[in-house]
User: What shape does this take?
Amino acid sequence: MEEPLQQGQFFLIDKPYGWTSFDVVSKMKGFIKHQMGIPKIKIGHAGTLDPLATGLLIVCTGKQTRQIEQFQALEKEYTGTFYLGMTTPSYDLEKEPDTIFPTDHLSRELMEEAALKLSGDQMQLPPVFSAVKVGGKRLYEYARKQKDVTLTPRPVKISVFELGRLEMPELDFRVICSKGTYIRALARDFGQACGSGAYLLKLCRTRIGPYSLNEALSIAQWSALMEGKMQNL
Assistant: This one.
């Protein structure tokens, strides 16, 4: 198995809740090293998922890591849930809610108008708690030290922004978007567009370009696949 992995392969992995994208890579690298006896191998992921998000993560090995930027550039699809009427500093459940907003005025029609307003080409401010670099440091490094930093909007494209189940204060959605789009920031912007507040309650990445979550393996399934290939050598 060393030769195919070193030459380059990519795997579609279903990232579990609570894991960082690096946790997935570390787990797979450890398996390759300790279970498969391959001490050195390049391995990396294409497109970070937050720890509280689940879904499709593309992991590349060997020479395939050279294609990571190409994978990252592909269109992404997400499903999830907004929590309406509150905000958090991180725009998701990583931080506790800090502000409450009115929701009595919210209607389905108003929310549909907000989704339409946020569709298409947009200039989006990244979350303060994110890996975007400013002055050589990640934004979350400034945020954790409670240091102010000037954020610069970045161009993104929201190709599809569909609203689903509405059971206040929860609203389901489906989004298809470009590289660099933060769905947590979209939650913030959606709340503001509705004259209220919102944060990201749940998020799952269901597609990256032509690759679907339905094709992805859990870490346990991937490990079993690798063990099976070793036994067949």
Remarks:
- Helices lie at 2-7, 21-34, 68-72, 108-117, 139-144, 183-193, 219-231.
